[in-house]
């Protein structure tokens, strides 16, 4: 293992998710979905700020002009962190009151991909949406249960996607101009005993780094061969997502969760819900800014 844990940040999230690095600000962001908290961590000063929202907060993305884009419940909003002003962008599934947004990412062209799930985790109740400049959500995938991790290969021709309970990472062809995806194959199947694939990111070599819920770590997979290459072992069971950041994109921020853990579990794994910074030798690909 060449990768080394730098430090943990004691954020004690119930459901930490959605990590994001914004280079211009020198900050990592992440959310605590159930508590509605937005965390902002200044990498240099190590200052942590938390903003609370009276909704489930599933996603934070980089918008234009220094604004953030947030997924609140089933609404997508623009958020000015200086003035705390919120502007409505669009909403999905307004008749599905048990549903909420889950993971979201911005594609290389600045469009938003964001999925939904039922808060009862009803099988097939979720969808994956594409939202462009017209702010009209378009369904890309249906019958999902826990719409989760997404990544694009550095050449922008391939899209990877996770529906967590399937324990599979799907590979799609990706048309950068239209955003159209077409299923190619199952790139990776997670073996028994390694937990469930959750959020993910991609490194410069096109390898996938996948947070394994109930798998105590972030696993590096080769999507061409399906081979497990490496693992960042963490002292908590529920690892939820990861992203690259730092000046050289060689620092990984990893989110974790306390949900589905008993009092005894939390006593055994007291850092559950904290965030971990790991120095990663391979280096990652920067996230994209939304153009809506």
TrEMBL record:
Name listed for the protein in its UniProt record: SMP-30/gluconolactonase/LRE family protein
Domain of life from the UniProt record: Bacteria
Entry-linked SUPFAM superfamilies: Calcium-dependent phosphotriesterase
Family: Belongs to the SMP-30/CGR1 family.
Pfam family, one: SGL
Domain (SMP-30/Gluconolactonase/LRE-like region) ranges: 15-258
């Amino acid at each position: 293992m060449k990768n080394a844990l730098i430090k943990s940040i004691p954020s004690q999230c119930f459901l930490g998710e959605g990590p994001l690095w914004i280079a211009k600000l020198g900050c990592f962001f992440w959310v605590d979905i159930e508590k509605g908290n937005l965390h902002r961590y200044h990498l240099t000063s190590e200052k942590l700020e938390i903003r609370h929202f009276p909704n489930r907060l599933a996603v934070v993305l980089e918008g234009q002009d220094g604004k953030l884009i947030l997924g609140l419940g089933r609404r997508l909003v623009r958020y000015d962190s200086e003035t705390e002003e919120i502007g409505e962008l669009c909403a999905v599934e307004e008749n599905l009151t048990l549903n909420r947004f889950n993971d979201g990412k911005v594609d290389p062209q600045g469009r938003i991909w964001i999925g939904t799930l039922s808060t009862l985790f009803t099988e097939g109740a979720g969808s994956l949406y594409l939202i462009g400049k017209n702010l009209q959500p378009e369904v890309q995938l249906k019958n999902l249960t826990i719409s989760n991790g997404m990544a694009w290969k550095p050449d922008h021709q391939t899209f990877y996607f996770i529906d967590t309970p399937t324990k599979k990472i799907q590979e799609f062809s990706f048309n950068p101009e239209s955003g159209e995806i077409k299923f190619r194959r199952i790139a990776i199947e997670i073996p028994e005993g390694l937990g469930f694939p959750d959020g993910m990111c991609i490194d410069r070599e096109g390898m996938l780094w996948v947070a394994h819920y109930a798998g105590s770590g972030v696993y590096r997979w080769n999507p061409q061969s399906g081979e497990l290459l490496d693992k960042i072992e963490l002292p908590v069971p529920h690892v939820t997502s990861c992203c690259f950041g730092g000046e050289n994109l060689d620092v990984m921020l990893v989110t974790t969760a306390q949900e589905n853990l008993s009092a005894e579990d939390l006593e055994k794994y007291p850092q559950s819900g904290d965030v971990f910074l790991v120095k990663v030798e391979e280096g990652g690909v920067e996230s994209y800014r939304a153009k809506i």
